[in-house]
Hints:
With 206 residues, the chain is mainly α. The protein is built from ten helices and no strands. The protein has helices at residues 2-10, 20-27, 38-57, 61-65, 69-78, 104-115, 117-120, 124-131, 138-142, 146-204. Helix 8 (124-131) crosses helix 10.
Amino acid sequence: MNNIEEIIKNLPSSWKELKLKDYLKIVDVSLIEYTNDIYGADFVKLDNAIRILSSLTGLTVDEIEKLPMSYVNQMVAKISFMDKLPSERIKPPFKIKRIEQITFEEYISFLNYTHKPELIFSNLPNIIRQFSITPFTQEEVENLNMEDVLSCFFLSKKQLMTSLNNSIRQTVMRLIKLKMIEVKEHLLKKFKIKKQQSTSNTDSTF
């Protein structure tokens, strides 16, 4: 069992210890959907944890299920950090491009990612390379820890959403301004017509 103890020791116990390349293995794992039944939910959670552990350790699901429960409990406890995402307030150790530094194509790609959650995690390497000022090779990106990766995603999303909201706000203000001009021109035109009619009626009385 020494080999199992070494495997448990090498398992990540935080987002900081989990590398992107290992996280991408988890993305491909087929997880079971949770049920409303409390006992069923506990079973599903444990079953999913074993599937994730299989992808991280290289052990098959059957091999993990045949381990003593004490080992399984230790392994599940080590990856329990995955139940909660890291804080969005954490800043990545590398600088992120400002909105004016990215291309329109990158901007649209990111918006597509944020509107399709299933695309976000499998495309994290692309997001990092697109939005980081620091140039990364594929290998360097894959070896980044997930806390830094997710903080980069959160920051990029915040910057782009702020820019998008500002853009929408500016567009709305322009439309309001144009509408006000349109209303003003309409009122002036209407006033002129009334004035002409009034003048015409006055002339007809003489």
